[in-house]
């Protein structure tokens, strides 16, 4: 615990000069916003006749015809599409890539595969780890987030193309994507809430208190948690590194079965999710 607190204090004390950027908000694939196409009313009547008519008859409200094209309006509708749709979205920092799929991969839960060995029995993760360069795999409901070994590369396309094909092939195969062993080991929501709150109270917040910062657990859904940074943490240039190197490690050390970790802090006037 002392090492974690020390690490967080070093970060806020200015010893680590790594700059961070927030991850761009992700957009849902292939969903068009509703449109209303109005048809203008046409008239060939001369202006003089129109004025005369208006004197003899009270003005009536003109009605316009509105055409509403069919659109995909909900996540449920997307999931019902027979074709498997996949969209890849690299993060702004290019350290990870999120794949959005119109299929439930692990309903209402998430799981973090830290290496190939941890993926044993889970066919989807095994297939993704077989792609050269993949470091970790996070599966959360209908999304997959990958990190890669080579942090210097700015091009996700080679891995993204292979990963998209691997995800599609595994879904089409009908195999179990996540092993029963993993599904059965997912902790109860109450256990997750209690354990993570304990880590925040005893390890994380004491480490950031010297900078006037605080971490709040705002949401727990299954084994997925959402936190918020406040005080000196909010808007801090070290916030990204703090989350990934300090808080992330502390959470997973205390609860290895923890799934996705999100940060909803308004660092730069927007929701900034981080996937670990």
Describe the 3D structure.
This protein has 276 residues and is α+β, with helices and mostly antiparallel strands. The chain has eight helices and ten strands. The chain has helices at residues 2-12, 47-56, 75-79, 123-129, 157-173, 180-185, 189-208, 239-254; strands at residues 37-38, 66-67, 86-90, 96-101, 106-113, 134-141, 143-148, 213-221, 224-231, 261-263. A five-stranded antiparallel β-sheet has the order 3-4-7-6-5, covered by helices on one side. Strands 8-9-10 form a three-stranded mixed β-sheet, with helices on one face. The longest helix has 20 residues, at 189-208. It starts with a helix and ends in a 13-residue tail after the last strand.
Ordered list of secondary-structure elements with their pairings:
Elements: H1 2-12, E1 37-38, H2 47-56, E2 66-67, H3 75-79, E3 86-90, E4 96-101, E5 106-113, H4 123-129, E6 134-141, E7 143-148, H5 157-173, H6 180-185, H7 189-208, E8 213-221, E9 224-231, H8 239-254, E10 261-263
Parallel strand pairs: 9-10
Antiparallel strand pairs: 1-2, 3-4, 4-7, 5-6, 6-7, 8-9
Short description:
With 276 residues, this protein is an alpha+beta fold.
